[in-house]
Amino acid sequence: MALTILLVSIAVSFDSFLAGISLGLQNIKLPLFSQSIIAIESGGLIIVSTLLGHVISSFLTPWLAKVGGACLLVALGAWSLVKKRGDSSMVSILAEPDLADVDYSGTITAGEAAVLGVALGLDSFAMGLSLALAGMGSLISGLACAAACFVSMVAGTALGTPLGRRISGSITYVLPGVLMIMLGISRIL
Fold first, then answer.
1. pTM of the predicted model, to two decimals?
2. How far is it, in rounded angstroms, from Cα 79 to Cα 171?
3. pLDDT at residue 47 above 80?
4. Which of 39, 41, 98, 170 is within CB 3.0–4.6 Å of 146 for a Cys-Cys bond?
5. What does the alpha-carbon distance between residue 7 and residue 21 come to, in Å, rounded to a whole number?
6. The domain containing residue 177 runs over which residues?
7. How many CA atoms lie within 13 A of 180 on its CB side?
8. What HEC string does 69-87 produce?
């Protein structure tokens, strides 16, 4: 269970890490309060979707819910691999986090953070639903994801230097999807 929570936290917080790097590279400030809003939204979306998934799974046989949730995790991982490659299917703020700075102040305000948090939290919602259908997910998962998103955003912002550009290669596009696929396959086996 702990390994599952760790993998889920890494997978859903990776976009936050990349968004932090992107903002840092452009010298856009992301105050701790704004980072907290983004993290709370991400964790909250996991908790809400997990609860929804548990309700849905109560109408399914345990086997069908587990396999369905695992297949959904694999599909989310595959979609994650595909969506990062083409900008046409990306939410524009997720593709370019600097667009969240709508007033061009150089600082992501609380309101702007709320919009960025929703964009970054879309994967969290889908992940929570998938986890619940696969027989996992809990309040602990949501709290762990919120903490991971916060830490990832802080780390990403701190690494948003020319050094950060060197790690923005193909692994940043592949890792979250691969983690979701591995998690889904492990639930089927």
1. 0.69
2. 16
3. yes
4. 39
5. 21
6. 2-188
7. 28
8. HHHHHHHHHHHHHHHCCCH
